[in-house]
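INFO batch 0412 | record 1 of 1 | parsing
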Amino acid sequence: MRILRVSLAFAIALALVAATQAMAGTAVMTLTPKAAGTVTRFPNFNLLYVQSDSDVYSTCFNTTGENLEFRRGFMEYRLPVSPRVVVRATLTLTETRAVITTPVPPDVHEVSAYPADLVVTTTDYDTPTQNITTFETDANEEPNPHVAIDVTDAVQQAKGRQIGFRIKLQIDPDGPCVNFAGSGFNGLFNNPPTLEIEFGHAQASPN
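INFO prediction complete | emitting tokens
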């Protein structure tokens, strides 16, 4: 009889949790990009081109002074049209690069948002963006498999349209680049960057 009572209490507790979630009306959707890639610029040669139409890089390279290059990564998503409000949105990246033993300072990356057309082209390189945040990577440490970035405000402002995220080094384009800096963040076909959106009930308008 005691076991039966415990089981019944457990079942009731589960039902209450389910009912609470239903009343809260939250739903979570995880999106992968419809387009991603990297655009590279060689400022000393006035050269700009799509380096990759799938992989995402935020790097710089410079060994001679003349061969300076900057790579900017792009990820573009088609947002779901929903009558619900966006409670939270998180962009998650998986860093990929080698680990070096020579001491180097951390690299600072900038993340920003822009209206997307689901195609990565050279025009994305300097498209106007909305700054979101910065984060660091460290070539002396193991790559970070879970770089989580709060992009709630940008997704809320996109209002169910397409949205793109740009990632670039903070020193790009005016800072010095010594040898190499930055990281890759995979792309369309290998650990793609995800956009997780939590929806909640729309609030009723006040009378």
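INFO post-check: The helical segments are 2-24, 152-158.
INFO record closed
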